Amino acid sequence: MNRENEFVVGVIGGLGPEATHDFFGKLLHHSHARTDQDHLHVIIEDNPKTPNRNEAIAGLGPSPGPCLAAMARALERAGADFIVMACNTAHAFEDSIRAATAKPFVSLIDEVVDEVRQVHRAAKRVGLLATQGSLDSKIYHTAFARHGIEALQLAAPSQLRFMEMLYRIKSGDRGRAVHDGMQQLGGELIASGADILIAACTEVPLVLKPGDNTKPLIDSTDVLARRCVAYARRQMPLPGGTAK
Q1: What's the mean pLDDT when you consider all of the chain?
Q2: Does 228 participate in catalysis according to the annotation?
Q3: Which of 11, 110, 190, 197 has its Cα between 20 and 30 A from that of 141?
Q4: Residues 95 and 123 grouped into a single domain
């Protein structure tokens, strides 16, 4: 298609920075570009100073909503045609983003749910490798329940181990112990009845890959990257209306 007709992608990032880097790399990969000019125009607002979303959901810290809204407005001013966010947990505050800008906001949560429905139609139970904040806010539970799909979560002690490994990943630890620990947690969800696993935190795919467990793994970062390419190139209609 004519590159001038492509939409400009605006990315709320920094939640965390390595996950945003992973998202951008997957966006480049799925662009299948042969020249620089074949790549998408992407604007990334990378702000790791955003208040901790898990603490906010737990009532232990300030809401990241105002910061996310400011980032969305900055992306709109910079020329973004639609906005995405490379973080699952922060979608608990997506209303702040939608209220801040007239540009379409593409929900990572909705895209993952749609991916499951399109690709894994027989799945009745999904296992969530997700932050405590994501679980407490029920963003995935609610979205999957609309389609009759049950979302399973780890038992409390295992969820604590997940959070410990998550912060090890954020600190740069991608070693065997973290990988094996995450793989074990995926196995626990499978043993509890999960038909597929959801890497429902964008740090999870930094260590856990499809094929590491006996059931399929949905990489939420990869899903968002693929969908962004399709939306930007107008191969799929943007959710909620056309970019202005």
Answers
A1: 96
A2: no
A3: 11
A4: no
